[in-house]
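Hi F.,

I've been meaning to write this up properly since the lab meeting, where we talked about keeping a consistent format for the predictions we share between groups. The idea is simple: the sequence comes first, exactly as it goes in, then the structure tokens exactly as they come out, then a line or two of notes. No screenshots and no reformatting. I'm using this chain as the first example so we have something concrete to point to.
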Amino acid sequence: MSRIGSSMRDRLIGRNWHPGCPVGLDDLRHLQVGYWDFEDRVRSGPLIVHEKVASDVLRVFRRLFMAGFPIHRIALPRAYRPPRRIDWFSTMNRTA
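Output, unedited:
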């Protein structure tokens, strides 16, 4: 568990975090967690979480790892983009 370093900060700003976000970068923590994929291989991936829950999240992922619980992938999310008008009409986004 660590503070958001300069390289991670550069990756997050403008991608998944921007000025005005409700949680400042100084309140976030970078966790690198190990997990089992669906082919029984050990992988590692990043999680960005609020400092107040970082220890709890780390504990949960340790327990999942020890239990051999498979996870498809852990990675930073794709760059955020606000919904566009065309997204409103997409058949992929319909719930019914």
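Notes:
The radius of gyration is 16 Å.
The chain has one domain: 2-82.

If this format works for you, I'll send the rest the same way.

G.
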